[in-house]
Amino acid sequence: MFDIYGGPVFGMARQQFLQAADILEIPTDQRDRLLYPKRAIAVTCPIHRDDGSTVVYEGYRVQHHLSLGPAKGGVRFSPHVDIGEVAALSLWMSWKCALMNLPYGGAKGGVRVDPYSLSPKELEALSRRFMQELIPFVGPHVDVMAPDIGTNEQVMAWFMDTYSNDAGQTVTEIVTGKPVSCGGTVGRREATGRGVTHTIVRAAEEINLNLAQSTAVIQGFGNVGSVAANELHALGVKILAISDHTAAYHDPKGLNIPEIIDYVSKHGVLKGYSSECLTDPNAILTIKCDVLVPAAVERVITEEIANKIECRILAEAANGPTTLEADAVFAKRPEVFIIPDILCNSGGVTVSYFEWVQDLQQFFWEEEEIISRMKKIMDKGFYDTVKSAKELKVSNRMAATCAGLRRVNAAKQARGLFP
């Protein structure tokens, strides 16, 4: 059934769902409706390259459900995108939004392309074509897109402009994560990384860890990882190691994070920053530290890695970084406090919600208010998860997933099936 959603990433999300459904004792005949997406769209995106040739890219948008409000989720430009991965990400987004009590269903999108192989003109052409193809299926009250891996504020501005030109009026609320000059909100770019750090602070309190005397390792130094690194550094945490897709650095004395962030802002990547601190990127996850932050892609923490990890807090800034086999290992390692992805990285969608609300009202808030509201919502999600995990005697991941699934299921049951 629904074979189009094959692949290891959706398989992992499906198993997590089934575990939560068993805990909640959801009847078997209700599960497929909760698991499988409401709508999956595949589009072709032809563009002219700078050399005059024509090339066609494949794009996807999956809307998991719309029972609580419009679908919400990012768009990634990556050579590894497939519809199974996008469907899994939409599923996690559903539980994340419900856990944070946001009026959204989950969605995700992507184009199979290496964005670094495109010129700025080609990237604009692809961004606009992707949005143009999706116009019949999206809208401010249907599906609201946001940035993800390989996309950014500029791509969101092109999305918004394309949709607005079709509508005949400016529609800022069609996307979030866009530039402030185009109706974006202050604090959105930093929101996910700030949220990651905030949950780490709460986890440290939970296990009595003094962050000012602790160490951290961060895999992935994009928008989320770099912001989290900067926030942790400001709290006195010694950042031992970082990496991105171009390089990895390790210094037992601690890395100069402000200097590295300045370097990346000028060069785009970590490569070339230093030759003295270079290390094996495959070994970065097993460096002994207090806080480990996987902030790159899915399924990087395997069973083998889980057995070798030496940290006290595992903060999942990326989506789905821990495999099912690794979770089984962590079930026997209670000394590792896991902040599950749908909680840890929820600051981004929370502030995206604020951006959407501000655009709809055409009334904007100060950054201090946005940060305060984000922390308040994330605190509730954190404490509800920890409390539920203890009461149900399950992992933090299952507790968070159950909380999200319970809310979505309640909405679907109350609304009923359309005849």
Automatic annotation (TrEMBL):
Biological process according to GO: L-glutamate catabolic process
Active site, renumbered: K108
Entry-linked PROSITE patterns: GLFV_DEHYDROGENASE
Annotated site, Important for catalysis, chain positions: D148
Binding site for substrate: K72, K96, S352
Keyword tags: NAD, Nucleotide-binding, Oxidoreductase
Keyword Secreted annotated: no
Gene Ontology molecular function terms on file: glutamate dehydrogenase (NAD+) activity; nucleotide binding
Domain of life the protein comes from: Bacteria
UniProt cross-references to Pfam families, sorted A to Z: ELFV_dehydrog, ELFV_dehydrog_N
Binding site for NAD(+): T192, N223
SMART domains (UniProt xref): ELFV_dehydrog
Keyword field contains Metal-binding: no
SUPFAM superfamilies in the cross-refs: Aminoacid dehydrogenase-like, N-terminal domain (SSF53223), NAD(P)-binding Rossmann-fold domains (SSF51735)
Residue ranges constituting the Glutamate/phenylalanine/leucine/valine/L-tryptophan dehydrogenase C-terminal domain according to the UniProt record: 185-416
Family assignment from sequence similarity: Belongs to the Glu/Leu/Phe/Val dehydrogenases family.
PANTHER family, alphabetized: GLUTAMATE DEHYDROGENASE, GLUTAMATE DEHYDROGENASE 1, MITOCHONDRIAL
Protein known as: Glutamate dehydrogenase
Native species: Commensalibacter communis
